[in-house]
Fold this sequence. Notes:
The structure holds two protein chains of two kinds.
Chain A: H1 13-16, H2 23-42, H3 45-71, H4 79-95, H5 100-119, H6 127-147, H7 149-152, E1 159-160, E2 165-166, E3 169-170, H8 175-195, H9 199-209, H10 211-216, H11 221-248, E4 250-251, H12 258-271, H13 276-303, H14 310-331, H15 335-348
Antiparallel strand pairs in A: 1-4, 2-3
Helix pairs in contact in A: 3-8, 3-11, 3-12, 3-13, 4-5, 4-6, 4-11, 5-11, 8-11, 12-13, 12-14, 13-14, 13-15
Chain B: H1 14-17, E1 32-41, E2 44-54, E3 59-63, H2 70-77, E4 85-90, E5 93-94, H3 100-105, E6 108-110, H4 123-129, H5 139-143, H6 145-148, H7 150-166, H8 182-195, E7 200-204, H9 212-229, E8 232-236, H10 240-246, E9 249-254, E10 257-262, H11 264-269, H12 271-278, H13 280-290
Helix pairs in contact in B: 4-8, 12-13
The site of magnesium ion (MG) has 3 residues of chain B, from helix 2.
Amino acid sequence: MFYRRAGIRHTRYQDERQIWPLPFDRRLALLIFLLAIFAPLLIDRLYLVSYLLPWVIWSTAALGLNFLMGGAGQIHLGYGAVIAIGAYASVHMVRAGLPFELAMIGGGLLSAAVGMIFGATALRVKGLYLAMATLAMQYIVDFVIIQFPAISGGTQATLQVPRVSFLGVEVTGDLAPYYVALLICLLVTLFMLNLRRSSFGRALAAVREKDYAAAVIGVNTFRYKLLAFWVSSFIGGVVGSVLAVCYYRAISPDQFHLDLSIQLVAMVIVGGLGSVLGSFFGAALILFAPILLNQFFGFAASELGMTISTDLRSHVPLMLYGAMIVGFLLWEPLGLAKIYANLRNYFLVWPFRHARQ
Amino acid sequence: MSERPTRTSWDKQEALARPVGLSKGGREAPVLVCADIERRFGGLRALKGVSLSVEKGEIFGLVGPNGSGKTTMVNVMTGFYPPSSGTVTLFGQDVSGIAPHRIASLGVARTFQNLALFKGMSVLDNIMLGRHTAMRPSALGTFFYWWWSQREELAHRRVVEETIEFMQLEDIRNEPVEVIPIGLQKRVELARALVAEPRFLILDEPMAGMNQEEKEYIARFILDAREERNTTILIIEHHMDVVTAICDRVVVLSYGEIIAEGEPRAAIADPAVVKAYIGERAARRQAGAAA
Lengths: 357, 291
Ligand SMILES: Nc1ncnc2c1ncn2[C@@H]1O[C@H](COP(=O)(O)OP(=O)(O)OP(=O)(O)O)[C@@H](O)[C@H]1O
Ligand SMILES: [Mg+2]
């Protein structure tokens, strides 16, 4: 377990540039992968559907947003709207008879196109102004979906998802949706892991860190910022279609409002900007903290005889997100991932004090 | 930091510094021609009609007191500040007003006076970024890393490792760039510029804040870069010992105008230059003392 770095020598650049150069991390990743694959055998179906599935989907969404915020350094307060576009577009496509696989890509492309138009403002504005521009996107998209019955699906404003199949397997029951979501999550995760060691990811990071220095080595900063919005929105759109088909199964506009965008930003910041692992941590915390809190309140109400209004109960999670964002920004701007990294570094060389990786 | 020329070990190396058979008189097109460059910042005229040209294979010095417009001149050449008037021609192509990344892709690399490295990245990644124009980055290439990008990545890694070795950065290549000392950071930035295999390399005070030994190192690297890679180099430098030792030709700027040019030693000894550096009264006193 300890001295995990000792004796490990890489003799080829290829080995040194592995996603996880240390065997320990590779084994850990494999273990988590196997646990995810065999989860339906290991945990109750109820937990699978109501906890694990949303965690997988929201982690994928957080990865997509983290690509933009952590990878390219652009803030986005309207990622919920990006997901909404993908969800509505792909549901309409499958309702029109398109196969789910194509609808998923179609939803991604539409999200990417709209996201890039709003992202284009990122080329002119920075910081607060970009935040406002993306916030505007959230409201405009919300408005358009609600105002056009052709999009939202008429008066009662829920759009049923028909039965679909993915790669020949019907996406019904508990298992198929979980595995579809897991596959998409895996693909996005691999993309994000490779980002760090590819020229594309480096160029994005260069634009994020110092745009004039990026320009001087030949990076077209204009193009890369646009690309960052394109790719991130594409992932968001695909997540939207997975969310609609595998989880919600019937979508309505209120599922994609501003509070979703805020939750996603919270996931990224609490988890760790630019960290793949952090996106999973962040999604877990934002997803499960309110549930635990609610259970705590239920316990407090029944066992301790405290009276807590439902109003308060529903607002506490929102306050908690706010508190967590502020807390992490103040004390650990790199989020849960950094806390994990510190721990890992400590044990990497225990009982000594110095760690390099 | 207007240092007066001092006699150092530099003068001894002079013979080494000036290679024979330089294509100076040879009728090859100049690498850079700046014609009548003017650059204004609001009411301030930072450059007032500067014309200069840099020949192929040359080490060209740009000197002058603080605030004389050297960095501004370089920013005009590399597209950061489009000239208010005048034209910049690189490799025979008019590039006035063209974006910096397009000038970089023509084969021009530069370093900055106040370091422009990417924090949070390792030394290696910083230098790898120097290969950007030679690589084909794409989102799909990242997604299909094992099939599309890996081989390219490794091939360029080899080129980068050569430069890492050349610049003696082996033992810090995995350090985050912000934790290493400034002198080394300057060297990393020079390495990043070199791995681009530029035809024209622009260095803005690469030796600022270095001690004599580090300066000698950098000067060696610059000379080697010219020798081994046939790079044309423009260097801004305040250390006159270095300038006289390695430059073939210099231009001296003062208040945005050229006040002297030509062979380094002669140009620097020019009365106008002495005056610009140490002030009129001191110059007269010095002239009196010499007489
Ligand atoms: N972006 C800018 N906006 C306004 N004024 C500027 C700008 N850049 C440079 N200047 C002005 O132009 C003049 C020339 O500056 P420059 O940086 O080119 O001098 P320099 O020769 O590089 O000096 P140093 O030796 O100190 O580096 C200075 O008066 C400076 O204040
Ligand atoms: Mg300067």
